[in-house]
Specification:
alpha+beta; Bactericidal permeability-increasing protein, domain 1; 2 domains; seven-stranded antiparallel β-sheet; three-stranded antiparallel β-sheet; 10 strands; elongated
C-alpha cells in the first residue's frame, strides 16, 4: 500500500508539472493576447489612467467662419485679462478660424474649402490647392499630372514659439496622393504663406505659456507669471 501511495503521489506530481509546463508554453505563445487582456482590465478598472476615452479620442474636424473666429477671440480676451482663467479650450471650428488667419492673405488665396482636423498633438489641414500659386519649380516632379486645383493635406505639430505667438510647423505635405519629402515641406509652406521660416503663426495672448492639441479640442494654458 505504501508503494502504491508513493506511486500515486509521483504520478500526481508528474501530472502537475506537465500541466504547469503546458500552461507556461501556452502563456508564452499567447503572451501578447494575455498582455492586452490584462491592460484592458486595468484600464477598465482605472479609467483615469487613460488620457483619452470614448468621444474624446475621435478627431474633430472644423471649418473657419466669422462666428467661430469671434468665439475664439472672446476666449483669448478672457485669458488676456488679469486674473483670467488658467486655461481655455478651443473647438475645431475655432482653431480652424485661427489657422486660417495665420495663413495670411497669400495662404488663403492658395487654399479653398479649408478644413482642420485635430489629432493628438497635431493639426491636419485639408483644402483645395491652387497649384499655379504654389510655383512650377516646387511642383516640377508632378509636372503634367496636376490640374489647376488639387486636394492637399498639410499636417504637423505646434508650440509656443514666443510671447504671444504659437508656431504651427507642418512636417507633412501631400498633394493629391503624392507626399513630398519632409525636407521640402518648409519650402512649400513658405511658398504658401510668403514667409521665410516654414511655419504658420497663430496669434495668442501674451499670457499663453503652453498648448495641448487633442482630438476633442485645443487647450491653451496660462503662463505661470501671466
Amino acid at each position: 500500500m505504501a508503494e502504491g501511495g508513493c506511486l500515486k503521489n509521483l504520478l500526481a506530481g508528474i501530472g502537475c508539472l506537465t500541466v504547469a509546463a503546458a500552461g507556461g508554453i501556452a502563456g508564452w505563445h499567447y503572451r501578447a493576447q494575455l498582455g492586452g487582456l490584462y491592460r484592458s482590465i486595468v484600464e477598465r478598472e482605472s479609467p483615469a489612467s487613460s488620457p483619452l476615452s470614448g468621444a474624446d479620442s475621435v478627431p474633430r474636424t472644423g471649418r473657419p467662419s466669422a462666428q467661430a473666429f469671434e468665439a475664439a477671440r472672446r476666449k483669448q480676451e478672457a485669458m488676456a485679462r488679469r486674473g483670467g482663467p488658467a486655461y481655455v479650450t478651443l473647438s475645431a471650428d475655432e482653431m480652424a478660424s485661427l489657422i486660417a488667419v495665420g495663413l495670411g492673405p497669400a495662404g488663403r488665396a492658395a487654399l479653398d474649402s479649408i478644413e482642420v482636423t485635430l489629432h493628438e498633438d497635431r493639426f491636419e489641414v485639408r483644402a483645395l490647392l491652387n497649384t499655379e500659386l504654389l510655383g512650377a519649380a516646387l511642383l516640377r516632379p508632378l509636372a503634367g499630372i496636376l490640374s489647376a486645383r488639387e486636394p492637399v493635406r498639410v499636417s504637423g505639430g505646434a508650440r509656443v514659439a514666443a510671447v504671444g505667438a504659437v508656431a504651427w510647423a507642418p512636417d507633412s505635405f501631400v498633394v493629391r496622393s503624392f507626399p513630398f519629402p519632409r525636407s521640402a515641406v518648409p519650402l512649400l509652406v513658405n511658398q504658401l504663406t510668403r514667409r521665410p521660416d516654414g511655419i504658420v503663426p497663430i496669434p495668442v495672448p501674451a499670457t499663453v505659456g503652453d498648448l495641448r492639441i487633442r482630438p476633442s479640442g485645443v487647450t491653451f494654458y496660462r503662463r505661470a507669471d501671466g
